[in-house]
């Protein structure tokens, strides 16, 4: 049954990792509000299945699918080219895709996968889309982080965990880096009409962890995550930050349960934010300034 309303009519929203869990529920929520939704997924079959489910449930046909493997910088650049062939505006970018990796695995670019997908992909994708976001202002960037960032730390000289890979250290670092990127980005975007905020969706029953842990640990991960909130609940803060008039103009904040919350003390270090930005720009071959 269609549940379409019109509060996001005319808004173009991109959601990464939109075929599963929090991302799929976010894409559905925005489609139900009348937005044009661009789903970014890495697998065509999984993407198309979710796309038709979202169209059916929302009654909104303006749900597009673009394919990209966010662990590959070339694929992210191709995604932006494909997007620009069809769209001249973007009002909301939700960097939602994420992974948990049991063991260290290098991407095609030779980077550690958790760092590359959870942090560097949002860094590159956002930077490549900044001009179009600015031209579409008011526009919003929403980064899906995690409370796990609280125990994370930035190993500025070993961002790729070459020395000693630990699953939750890699995840925590990637999510802390995403929070710090959000704060630095918000500062750089002051006066442009583009806001940047980040969030923790809550402990949510999704597929997270399953593709990264291998066949033996997969049932255990699946069992643990059964105790989480529903993806629809988990998507609420992303949808709030993407759409609510309450947060028009609000920028550079971390949200939990649709409320601003203090993030880890280290996340507010502007010198570390800057260092991280500079290192990241080099890793993705971008000029340092936006
Ligand atoms: N679930 C939680 O309790 C929880 C808590 C805190 C934060 N988060 C964060 O919430 C976000 C959404 O996760 P989720 O819980 O909804 O997990 P999920 O169901 O596993 O969804 C993750 C999405 O990211 C996509 N993805 C992963 N690697 C990709 C790549 N290389 N290229 C393109 N897409 C890729 C996945 O695609 P495939 O389906 O093809 O794998 C999937 O669509 C993540 O950033 C996660 O870290 C989740």
Keywords:
single chain; binds NADP nicotinamide-adenine-dinucleotide phosphate; about 290 residues; 8 strands
Can you walk through the features of this model?
The protein has 290 residues and is α/β, with parallel strands linked by helices. Helix 5 (167-188) links the parallel strand 5 and strand 6 (194-200). The chain has an eight-stranded mixed beta sheet, with helices on both faces. The termini are far apart. The chain has helices at 21-32, 44-58, 73-86, 113-135, 167-188, 210-225, 231-234, 236-243, 270-283; strands at residues 12-16, 36-41, 63-67, 92-95, 139-144, 194-200, 254-256, 259-260. It is built from nine helices and eight strands. Helix 3 packs parallel to helix 4 and helix 5 (167-188) crosses helix 9. Helices cover 44% and strands 13% of the residues. The protein binds NADP nicotinamide-adenine-dinucleotide phosphate. NADP nicotinamide-adenine-dinucleotide phosphate is lined by residues 17, 19-23, 42-43, 46, 69-71, 96-99, 117, 144, 146, 200-201, 203-204, 206-208, 211, 228.
């Amino acid at each position: 049954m269609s549940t379409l309303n019109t509060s996001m009519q005319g808004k173009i929203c991109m959601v990464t990792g939109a075929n599963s869990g929090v991302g799929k529920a976010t894409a559905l929520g925005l489609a139900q509000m009348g937005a044009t939704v661009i789903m970014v997924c890495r697998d065509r079959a999984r993407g198309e299945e979710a796309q038709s489910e979202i169209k059916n449930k929302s009654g909104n046909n303006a749900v597009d699918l673009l394919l990209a493997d966010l662990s590959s910088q070339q694929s992210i650049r191709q995604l932006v080219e494909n997007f620009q062939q069809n769209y001249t505006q973007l009002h909301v970018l939700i960097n939602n895709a994420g992974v948990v990796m049991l063991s260290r695995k290098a991407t095609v670019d030779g980077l550690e996968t958790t760092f590359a997908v959870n942090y560097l992909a949002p860094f590159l994708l956002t930077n490549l889309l900044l001009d179009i976001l600015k031209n579409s202002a008011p526009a919003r960037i929403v980064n899906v982080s995690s409370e796990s960032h609280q125990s994370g730390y930035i190993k500025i000289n070993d961002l790729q965990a070459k020395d000693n890979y630990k699953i939750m250290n890699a995840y925590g670092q990637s999510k802390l880096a995403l929070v710090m990127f959000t704060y630095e980005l918000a500062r750089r975007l002051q006066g442009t009409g583009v806001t940047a905020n980040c969030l923790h969706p809550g402990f949510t029953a999704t597929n997270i962890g399953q593709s990264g842990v291998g066949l033996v640990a997969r049932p255990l991960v699946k069992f643990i995550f059964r105790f989480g909130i529903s993806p629809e609940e988990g998507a609420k803060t992303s949808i709030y930050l993407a759409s609510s008039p309450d947060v028009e103009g609000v920028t550079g904040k971390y949200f939990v349960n649709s409320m601003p919350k203090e993030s880890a003390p280290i996340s507010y270090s502007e010198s570390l934010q800057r260092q991280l930005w500079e290192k990241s720009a080099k890793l993705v071959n971008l000029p340092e300034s936006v």
